[in-house]
């Protein structure tokens, strides 16, 4: 049971960037490899506000979200926009470049040391032999709130409709008056925020070091594909599933194989159900 | 349907094509306000190229384009829509992942940015009186609709911001005979409400049934214009449609048709 609970918590941490990845894939039509580095950047933003500036940890998490959404728009302006209508492989390679640069800028500033946020240690909540600490509660609360917010934006606002329309049929969306630039900026801002939240929450739960995001890369991709790539709401379910399966796998295999399990799921999904567990092949006319 | 009655569409000396190669040359024609004008012509005549230039998907190499008195030559598709020109593409003309209601909303909200919720509701109500079929299933995902229903939705979405003029790229393409009739009847109904219609159509017989004026395009140039009633009486036209290689154009009504090979 404890493994299930831990898996669920880990799943929320995977789900946040998985939603981000799905959003950028849907609207921009390429697999954003820099998602890992964005998670890491989010963790360091949280560290900066929390330790360097001495702000409260929750305030720091929120500010990390804002900061990374702005940084994501800046990256879009500097890297992806100049690439213009390049094909998705070029954009993917571009995003790898972004990942290298981000990670190494972080190393340049903070070095490779393992750091921790300034959090007062509190006694975990114990209920029926299940342990749950405060940080984990925060993770669940923030992730659920972010999920509800994204779902509402996508389903209920004109911005969300425009994002889904652009993802579906970009040229028709433009003919309907949707401003593509604006949608792209919002997509980056939103996925930057989600990645930052994930990074900051990982930092709260564990440590801050330059590879924390990269360690999540395979799990996040697996979650996105399980949920049906380009389907942000499916990515949430995919994240939870991957989190739980990874955690349960540690009962049978050494924990170092955790990522391997995700990788196996990823490969199996691509073979068996490339459009996601619930997905179906695109309807062709 | 319209904001200020229909407005005419006028092409003046328009040339357009791909990669510096003009496919249509020096086309001058007018779709008179509040009438249905159909451009017909054999395969490869440049109908698709012409309609794309009018829609704004293709920048003309020469000439001008007006809606009413307004010069829209330099405007992007969305700006043309805001100027009152609605365009229904032949394919990929609905958002398949969105519901019918969302398709209708998105047809309205970014073109009529200042239109409030009440205006949106009115627009939807108005459009659904023409397409009652869509009204009962507003939450259905557009990708699950049949070809005919999808074509109806495409037209309905384009009508949401109350265009004064409408351009249609082969509204009956790929439809079963039953839907060809009801689709063109819907176009006629829209026009009766005052909207100017300019369309290209391969299905000449069906198109003539609802058209007021016909323009004949051959090898990228206008060969002439007729009132719809006398078009097929013209001996030139008859020889073109009933003796030339492209005679299937006029006989195709009700049969399986091929897509215009010149559509590229």
What does this structure look like?
The complex is a heterodimer of chains A (285) and B (264). Chain A has 285 residues and is mainly α. Chain A contains eleven helices and two strands, in the order H-H-H-H-E-E-H-H-H-H-H-H-H. Chain A has helices spanning 2-28, 35-52, 57-83, 88-110, 134-156, 158-168, 170-175, 180-205, 212-226, 232-252, 258-272, and strands at residues 125-127, 130-132. Chain A starts with a helix and ends in a 13-residue tail after the last helix. With 264 residues, chain B is of the alpha/beta class. Helices cover 34% and strands 23% of the residues of chain B. Chain B has ten helices and ten strands. In chain B, the strands form two sheets. In chain B, strands 6-7-8-3-9-10 form a six-stranded mixed β-sheet, with helices on both faces. A four-stranded antiparallel β-sheet of chain B has the order 2-1-4-5, with helices on one face. In chain B, helix 3 packs parallel to helix 6 (147-159) and helix 6 (147-159) runs parallel beside helix 7. Mean pLDDT of chain B is 86; it is low at 245-264. The chains are: A mainly alpha (285), B alpha/beta (264). Chains A and B meet through helix 6 and helix 7 of A and helix 2 and helix 3 of B.
Beta-strand segment tally of chain A? 2
Model regions low in confidence, pLDDT < 50 over at least 5 residues of chain B: 245-264
Strands of the biggest beta sheet of chain A: in what spatial order? 1-2
* Mean pLDDT across every amino acid position of chain A: 89
Globally, the shape of chain A reads globular
Q: Mind summarizing the main beta sheet of chain B?
A: 6 strands, mixed
| Number of discrete helical segments of chain B | 10
The level of helicity of chain B is 25-40%
The quaternary organization reads as: heterodimer
State the order of secondary-structure elements of chain B, H for helix, E for strand: EEEHEEHEHHHHEHEHEEHH
């Amino acid at each position: 049971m404890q493994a299930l609970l831990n898996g669920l918590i880990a799943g929320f941490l995977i789900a946040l960037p998985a939603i981000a990845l799905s959003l950028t894939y849907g609207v921009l039509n390429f697999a954003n490899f820099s998602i890992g580095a964005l998670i890491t950047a989010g963790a360091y933003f949280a560290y900066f506000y929390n330790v360097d500036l001495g702000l409260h940890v929750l305030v720091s998490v929120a500010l990390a979200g804002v900061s990374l959404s702005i940084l994501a728009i800046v990256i879009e302006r500097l890297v992806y926009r100049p690439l213009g209508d390049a094909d998705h492989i070029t954009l993917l390679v571009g995003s790898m470049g972004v990942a290298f640069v981000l990670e190494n800028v972080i190393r340049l500033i903070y070095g490779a040391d393992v750091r921790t946020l300034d959090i007062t240690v509190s006694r975990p909540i114990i209920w029926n032999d299940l342990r749950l600490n405060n940080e984990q509660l925060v993770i669940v609360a923030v992730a659920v709130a972010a999920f509800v917010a994204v779902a509402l934006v996508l389903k209920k606002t004109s911005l969300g409709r425009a994002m889904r329309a652009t993802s579906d049929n970009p040229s028709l969306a433009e003919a309907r008056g949707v401003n593509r630039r604006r949608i792209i900026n919002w997509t980056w801002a939103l996925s930057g925020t989600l990645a930052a939240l994930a990074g900051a929450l990982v930092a709260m739960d564990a440590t801050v070091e330059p590879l924390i995001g990269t360690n999540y890369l395979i799990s996040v991709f697996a979650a996105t594909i399980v949920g049906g790539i380009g389907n942000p709401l499916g990515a949430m379910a995919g994240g939870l599933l991957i989190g739980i399966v990874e955690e349960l796998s540690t009962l049978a295999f050494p924990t170092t194989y955790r990522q391997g399990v995700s990788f196996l799921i990823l490969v199996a999904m691509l073979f068996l159900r490339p459009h996601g567990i619930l997905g179906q092949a695109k309807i062709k006319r | 349907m319209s904001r200020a009655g229909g407005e005419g569409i006028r092409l003046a000396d328009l040339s357009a094509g791909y990669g510096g190669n003009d496919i249509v040359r020096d086309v001058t024609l007018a779709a008179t306000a509040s009438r249905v004008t159909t451009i017909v012509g054999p395969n490869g005549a440049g109908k698709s190229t012409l309609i794309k230039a009018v829609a704004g998907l293709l920048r003309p190499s020469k000439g001008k384009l007006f809606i009413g008195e307004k010069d829209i030559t330099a405007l992007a598709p969305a700006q043309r829509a805001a100027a009152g020109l609605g365009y229904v593409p032949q394919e990929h003309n609905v958002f398949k992942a969105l519901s019918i209601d969302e398709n209708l909303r998105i047809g309205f909200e970014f073109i009529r940015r200042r239109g409030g919720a009440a205006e949106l509701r009115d627009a939807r109500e108005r459009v659904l009186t023409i397409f009652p079929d869509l009204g009962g299933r507003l939450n259905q995902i557009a990708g699950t609709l049949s070809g005919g229903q999808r074509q109806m939705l495409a037209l309905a979405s384009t009508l949401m911001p109350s265009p004064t003029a409408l351009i249609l790229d082969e509204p009956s393409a790929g439809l079963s005979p039953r839907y060809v009739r009801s689709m063109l009847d819907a176009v006629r109904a829209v026009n009766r409400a005052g909207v100017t219609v300019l369309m290209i159509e391969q299905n000449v017989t069906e198109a003539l049934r609802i058209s007021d004026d016909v323009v004949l395009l051959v090898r990228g140039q206008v060969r002439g214009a007729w009132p719809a009633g006398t078009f097929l009486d013209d001996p030139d036209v008859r020889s073109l449609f009933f003796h030339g290689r492209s005679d299937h154009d006029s006989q195709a009504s009700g049969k399986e048709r091929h897509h215009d090979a010149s559509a590229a």
